[in-house]
Amino acid sequence: MRLLRRNFLQGALGVAAGALGSTWAGRAAAQHAGHGPSPVPGATAAQSRPAGAGVPVPVNVLDVPKLPWELDNGVKVFRLVAEPVKAEFVPGKVVDLWGYNGHNPGPTIEVNEGDRVRFLFENRLPEPTTVHWHGLEVPIEMDGVPAISQPLVSPGERFTYEFTVRQNGTFFYHTHMAMQEMLGLLGFFIIHPREAHRPAVQKDFGIILQEWAILPNNTIPNTLSMEFNWLTFNGKAGPAATPMLVKLGERVRIRLVNIGMDHHPIHLHGFQFRVTGTEAGRVPESAWYPQNTVLVGVAQARDLEFDAVYPGDWMLHCHLPHHMMNQMVSMVGPMLHGSQAIETGKGMEEGMGMMKGHALSGENAPGFGRGMGMTTAEKPMTPMVGPSPHAQHGDSGGAGARAKGRVPGFPQDMWMPMDDEVAKPETFGLPKDWSAALGGMMTLVRVLPPDKYDEIMARVQAAGSGARPAPPPPPAAPGGGHGH
Ligand SMILES: [Cu+2]
User: Fold this and answer.
1) How far, in Å, is the centroid of ligand 1 from the Cα of 433?
2) How far apart are CA 217 and CA 220, in angstroms?
3) Engineered SS bond to 213: which of 222, 355, 395, 446, CB 3.0-4.6 Å?
4) Residue 441 alpha carbon to ligand 1 centre in Å
């Protein structure tokens, strides 16, 4: 019964940015009267509780839908389908990945500690797969390792996973076929504790870190590559990732999960945070210490928490320089002079030993240079030298051009705003050209004064609770017992 009262998760299914938690809903409902997100079901019961941490707020995984469920005799039943999917990293950059239920990363599973869950899994991939519940303490038959704990699930076949979740924290699910992981088969598995952890957070976000090697004019990741040119937060490369909206003074949790080939040092501007959770659950407060950069290793999860006491649009990003840009291109590719043997140990001036002349020469195809942003077959590209549709350092024909050949190392960065292409309610009010400052694993935590927060939340609501449609909520849970 107790768990069923907490069916606020259903109400949260349709709420994207700025999802409200029940402990906060009363206050928020008053502040948002008429235009804020509706208080979620269950809020009334929570408001009548004695003061305390109360019920956890729903997690908000921006740009990713939640996986709906139906209650069957006390069991939350999910339908999970592995299949090829399309993803759009930035506007115009559509790629072919594998995912779950039409999305990459897969939809977010959000349940409560103690829940009995059942996954009706179907494989619509062209090859066998299984689902592993990363970090969950489940019976061996449910562990999802092919041949070891279960038979492979062949194309067109189904498998039912069922277990009780006895932990809480940031977990995830993924295929247990290594190369399939490289095509993106993973998603969040969030388990809320029975009572919210203290100090309670008012915003709870989730970000999945992924990396991809996709050559220009290709749509399919090269899963053998060790070198990645597209880096994404929740399937979006900066500046296309939806900013996180926070009201000044709120306490914020951001959950990070990484599956890939690299570890990512994720850095937050403007605040010191504490790591309050790992892939294994909550970290005791006695073990917290201040950080502003946390290394999220492969197969790890990290929960960050901080008090958003400073207003501003603050960066959250991977600090690996190559992970802060889009569509970097190796100095090799289809335009390589076929007759020329590759020499090793050469520099840019010698074309890295791979081509005639300077590696970034305008005489070479754009693919040799490092285009940034939404470069597609239809879009202008630049090898970053010579005339370009976008100004380099704001002066493609002047000082910048004159510096070519005179300043060692030039050129490096270019400046390419795309504010209009990535505009959505959550970006309202950002300064002109803001989008040029973001690429790859970069997004914003917008800590907004109440009036500005309300204004932008109204726009988010008017647009339908976020820029991306969420699946319809499942039918309301009937009253009755909660079977285990
Ligand atoms: Cu990184």
Assistant:
1) 24
2) 9
3) 222
4) 7
Distance in Å, CA 301 to ligand 1 centroid? 14
| Ligand 1 centroid distance, CA of 232 (Å) | 9
Per-residue pLDDT of the chain (484 residues; tens, 9 = 90+): 343 333 333 333 333 333 333 333 333 333 333 333 333 333 333 333 444 578 999 999 999 999 999 999 999 999 999 999 999 999 999 999 999 999 999 999 999 999 999 999 999 999 999 999 999 999 999 999 999 999 999 999 999 999 999 999 999 999 999 999 999 999 999 999 999 999 999 999 999 999 999 987 889 999 998 889 999 999 999 999 999 999 999 999 999 999 999 999 999 999 999 999 999 999 999 999 999 999 999 999 999 999 999 999 999 999 999 999 887 764 444 443 344 445 656 666 666 665 666 666 655 554 443 333 333 433 333 333 333 444 444 444 556 666 666 788 887 888 889 999 999 999 999 999 999 999 999 999 999 999 999 999 999 999 976 544 444 434 434 433 333 3
Instruction: Say how many Å lie between the CA of residue 177 and the centre of ligand 1.
Output: 23
Q: 320: which 2 tokens?
A: 């690996």
* Domains of the chain by start residue, with CATH: 2-280+289-324+445-462 (2.60.40.420)
CA of 320 to the centre of ligand 1 (A): 5
pTM: 0.76
Alpha helices in 371-424 (DSSP H): 399-403
Ligand 1 center–CA 6 separation, angstroms? 36
Give which of 457, 466, 453 is closest to 312, Cα–Cα. Answer: 453
Query: How many whole angstroms separate alpha carbon 202 and alpha carbon 324?
Result: 29
For 124-217, where are the E strands, in sequence order? 131-134, 158-164, 169-175, 186-192, 203-212
